[in-house]
Write a structure and sequence with these properties.
By secondary structure, the chain is mainly α. Helix content is about 60%, strand content about 0%. It has a domain at about 10-40. It starts with 7 loop residues before the first helix and ends with a helix.
Length: about 60
Amino acid sequence: MSGINLSSTSCKALAIHIGEEPIRELLEQLNRLAQRVEHLERTKVDVINILPLPNSESATRKVA
């Protein structure tokens, strides 16, 4: 996991406006979300069409 890192300027601005404890909670939530997204990207499964799509050439060809 790479983690979410904020610049010192952003951390200082957030600390002034909302406080240090809420910043920690937000960063924890963002890190959990980032972990979940990374997990979903790693375990992503491509969908393979078993039936031809209606607009494909084989589907529009008529049998003589």
